[in-house]
Design a protein that fits this description.
Blueprint: H1 20-23, H2 29-45, E1 47-48, E2 54-57, H3 60-67, H4 71-83, E3 87-90, E4 99-102
Antiparallel strand pairs: 1-2, 2-4, 3-4
Helix pairs in contact: 2-4, 3-4
Length: about 110
């Protein structure tokens, strides 16, 4: 990977969003990176449901590959995010990936801690 020093005029490479409130949550670093990746996916490829709310479909195998983590680590991180109130997973039919709604913290203290 090539790197360079940053100056005032240096353009940033493509980046993923991560709300500051998420950094202070008691979830693993993997869960935080996963949240940023899923939030980025919603912003770029989100699917609108009948209520106009965006969701994504991100199968566990795909998440594992994108994050370079095991299936068990991905499942554990998804559970952490769900328990922290940052995602809602809605089951679909057998063999279908879940709908994942990525929730945005309104203020610093709105996530379940």
């Amino acid at each position: 990977m090539e790197v360079e020093f940053m100056t005032a005029g240096t353009p940033l490479p493509p980046s993923m969003p991560l709300p500051g409130a998420v950094l202070r949550l008691p979830v693993s670093s993997t869960a935080k990176v996963m949240y940023a990746r899923m939030l980025d996916a919603v912003l770029t490829d989100g699917i609108e449901d009948v209520n106009g709310i965006l969701y994504i479909r991100f199968p566990i195998m795909e998440l594992s590959a994108v994050l370079s983590r095991s299936h068990m680590t991905v499942k554990r991180s998804l559970k952490e995010l769900e328990e922290a109130g940052l995602i809602v997973r809605v089951r679909q039919g057998i063999g279908e990936p879940n709908k994942i709604y990525v929730l945005i913290p309104k203020t610093e203290g709105t996530c379940h801690e």
